[in-house]
Design goal:
three-stranded mixed beta sheet; mainly beta; five-stranded antiparallel beta sheet; 160 residues; 1 helix; 11% helix; 8 strands
């Protein structure tokens, strides 16, 4: 009888092992709590890692391996992006490893969007007519005609 009970207990314990996974010994990836703020408050803030919210707020992001950005969008304000550095502290025997972000809180000063200036319309002025081309000079009469071969009239022409 003892043998039957021992075999039953061994079978039950081995059955439990088949459903056991080694993943249960792995710890969940660490997360970092990041505070997001803006001036004016109420902007939509979204991290490049995915999570986002309306400022002021906090989001929990998986501890990133590299820097990331936070993008802020608010109606009638220019969109802004703020870079965030990741600082890893490996820890030692007395302190656990930790991950922090710099800056924390992540703050953005949003600038009002400048409305485009309307194009200045010049008053419509009618175009001035161009002056007519000067008419060719009339051919000189014989009395005022210069002597042939001379560009200027001979001043002594009538005195001889």
């Amino acid at each position: 009888m003892r043998r039957v009970i021992a075999i039953a207990l061994a079978g039950a314990s081995l059955g439990g092992c088949s459903s056991m996974s080694w993943d249960m010994f792995k710890s969940a990836p660490p997360t970092v709590q990041v505070r997001l703020e803006s001036n004016p408050p109420g902007a939509d803030a979204r991290t490049s890692l995915g999570p986002g919210c309306k400022t002021p707020c906090s989001v929990s992001v998986p501890a990133p391996e590299a820097p990331f950005t936070v993008d802020y969008v608010f109606n009638k304000y220019q969109p802004t992006s703020v870079p965030v550095n990741v600082i890893k502290n490996p820890g030692d025997f007395t302190t656990p490893a930790s991950v922090t972000t710099d800056p924390n809180p992540v703050f953005a000063e949003l600038q009002p969007a400048v409305p485009p200036k309307p194009a200045k319309k010049k008053p419509h002025r009618p175009k001035r007519p161009k002056p007519a081309a000067a008419a060719p000079a009339a051919a000189p009469t014989d009395a005022a005609a210069p002597a042939a071969g001379s560009a200027f009239p001979d001043p002594n022409a009538g005195k001889r």
